[in-house]
Structures are given as C-alpha cells and as structure tokens.
Amino acid sequence: MGPAVLSAVSAGVAISLTFWYRRQPAASLIVNHGVAFGVGADVPRTAEIGVFIALAVLGLLYWRWQRLRYPLGMMLGGAIANAVSRILFGGVVDYWHVAPYPYVFNAADVAIRLGLVWVLISFWISRGQTRTGTANDAPKVKEL
Prior knowledge:
Number of helices: 4
Radius of gyration: 20 Å
Strand order of the largest sheet: 1-2
Helix content: 55-70%
Mean pLDDT: 76
Number of strands: 4
C-alpha cells in the first residue's frame, strides 16, 4: 500500500502546485510542449501516444519489481502528473527555476528524477553486493 500512496501523493502534489502556480500573478510559467527540456516540441500530437506507452511500461515495472516499488511509484506519480498537465493545458507547465541550472521544471519532474536516482543507486548497490561474496558463498569443491 505504501508505494501506491507515494505515487498518488507525488501526482497530487505536482498537480496541485501546477494549479496554484497558474493562479499567481507574478509566476513565470513555461508550457513545455516537448518532452524533457523542450526536446521534440515540434513532434505531432499523435506522437504523444509514446508518453502513455511509457506510463504503461512504468506501471508494469512497478507491478513486477517489488523492491523498486517506492522509487517507481515516485516516477509513476510524476509521469501521471505531467500527463494530466499535458492533457489539461496542452503541455507540461513548468514553474521552478534554480540558478545556475538553465532549465525550468516542476514538482513532477523532481519526483521523476528522485525516483530515477533511487533506482540507479539500488541497482548499483545490488550489483556491488553480488560481486562481493564471502568464502561461505563460494561453491563447494569436492575434495579428492
């Protein structure tokens, strides 16, 4: 239940912040019609089906990989929030800019990136654990 809640909270916070920032008179909003960093802004709208396919794949991974449910839940929540923003506003609404980072991003992007970092660290840690074994983990050799 925990990962699903994390996914819903990630999506809910991101969507709520988008609506809140849209009502702020001094907010500088960017509507990103492309994918990450505005790449693919000139791609036809039918190509956005790829976004929903990516959501389905992420959902499948969430269901399949038990140990990665929390980070995948964060990524899924962020992806859902960006998909909702894309449907409602014709693009993803970005509202945060942190210098010297040159791009504008939103809470959903943060959830996606944190989830991705979590997944990568998990793979790195598990890879290190499989390489470093003890003498007891070694296969038994039959003595002559």
